[in-house]
Amino acid sequence: MKLIPVILCGGAGSRLWPVSRETHPKPFIRLADGQSLLQKAFLRGAALPDVIEVMTVTNRELLFKTKDEYRPVNDLKLPTSFILEPFGRNTAPAIAAAALHAAHAHGDDAILLVLAADHLISNQAGFQAAVANAAQMAQGGSLVTFGIEPSAPETGYGYIQVDRNKNSNKVVRFVEKPSLDIAKGYLASGNYLWNSGMFCFSAGGLLREMRELCPKVLELTEACLAQSPQTVGVGTNQTELEASSFALAPDISIDYAVMEKSHNVAVVPCDIGWSDIGSWNAIGDLTTADGSGNRIEGDVMLHDATDCYIQADGRMVGAVGVDNLIIIDTPDALLVAHKSRAQDVKHIYAGLKAQGHESHKLHRTVHRPWGTYTVLEEDPGYKIKRIEVKPGAALSLQMHHHRSEHWIVVSGTAKVVNGEQTLMIKTNESTYIPAGHKHRLENPGVINLVMIEVQSGEYLGEDDIVRFDDIYGRVVMA
């Protein structure tokens, strides 16, 4: 058997704001053990028998972050492949692209195991057994979904109806998220499972169903792939979906496009410690409660507080006389919510996005392919950043119309292009770059380069940048 875990890494994770942002979505959130949800998804798939590669479908802008997440956990040096979306078109086109890629590279009999990047599964042995069962059915031609044995009348999940009396794996129907009364009936009947959003099928089996049930999705995704450039390296390859043709693909989920229409769908019931980590309540449940029911991460001082989840990032948080609150403190945003309203955090995210407020998109520390920058202070006319560049990495050759920059090296050595000059700048040395000058920053050393950048000018937005050359492919050709 040739097994390919396909990790879908998309979405905004708006219910986990302010830690989850548009450029740092939910899969990249780190849990208390130091691993991100994305790393856990990779390890979960990579640990299975017969894996020949791990495939990831994600936004193009998240490629470098995704590679950074995989690098320290890919101990088996498994081949990795990436399908890069210019924007999201839901799961049907994403999975169609994965199936087409797998069929071309490995044949129609390759088995795809579709996993979400932002789920948590605590029972790896149970997961492995469920996948083995699903893969066997997929080899027989079935499209397989994983149904989670429900433990409560949950209204936040979709359901899968099965017929336990017939002792069959055949799906009777898929059901949308129910009301509480209906969910209680589902739980009492014993014939309903939570829909996990994980799937298993052969590449050929899925493509045959798509040709019959959603031919437009498959046809347009196939046409897009034909126009999409592919980069092949040692142990890795990436396909960057061409934007104008990908935009023509229908925006539809694999559930609506295929699974709910097909007569060839089976389910594997499983109890694997699954959670979709869909709210701060779910994150809090991963932390041990104290004697007053409080769950704490970070530097927190409480007095007469009960049943709260508090996460502090970098500074002291104090809480007095509060009950059933969620308090999430980050360097540039603070969330306070009642636990019963955890699902409504998405409205804060949506409001910030509608206003164009940067905190829906960026953290104060922003990750780039070359490293990170952190905004230390900002006011009209100036901005101060801490910039950290990885060894061997380089920023693009660029120019700004509206701002000048002063660079001071704190540690390491910087190779700087400043107009017509190329300079080597060491610790405690600096250079000044006037507006309109082409410039580039590079770290030629073997340790991280740390520097302070002071910007001055009438406009300091991140979009005041003209790139002339970039090793990460961020130059837009005319």
Unreliably modeled segments: none
Given this structure, which CATH class of the largest domain is correct? Alpha Beta
Largest sheet: 11 strands, mixed
Q: Ends: how far apart? A: 46 Å
CATH architecture of the largest domain: Alpha-Beta Complex
Structural class designation: alpha/beta
- Described by the principal axes of the CA atoms, the overall outline is globular
Q: How many domain units?
A: 3
Strand content: 25-35%
Give descriptors for this structure.
478 residues; 11 helices; six-stranded antiparallel β-sheet; single chain; alpha/beta; eleven-stranded mixed β-sheet; Jelly Rolls; 3 domains; Spore Coat Polysaccharide Biosynthesis Protein SpsA, Chain A; globular
Write up this protein.
The chain has 478 residues and is of the alpha/beta class. The protein folds into 3 domains: 3-275, Spore Coat Polysaccharide Biosynthesis Protein SpsA, Chain A; 280-346, no CATH class; 365-469, Jelly Rolls, CATH 2.60.120.10. It is built from 11 helices and 30 strands. Helix 3 packs across helix 6 (203-213), helix 3 (91-106) crosses helix 7 (215-226) and helix 6 (203-213) packs across helix 7.
Briefly say what this structure is.
With 478 residues, this protein is α/β, with parallel strands linked by helices. It has 3 domains: 3-275, Alpha-Beta Complex (Spore Coat Polysaccharide Biosynthesis Protein SpsA, Chain A); 280-346, no CATH class; 365-469, Jelly Rolls, CATH 2.60.120.
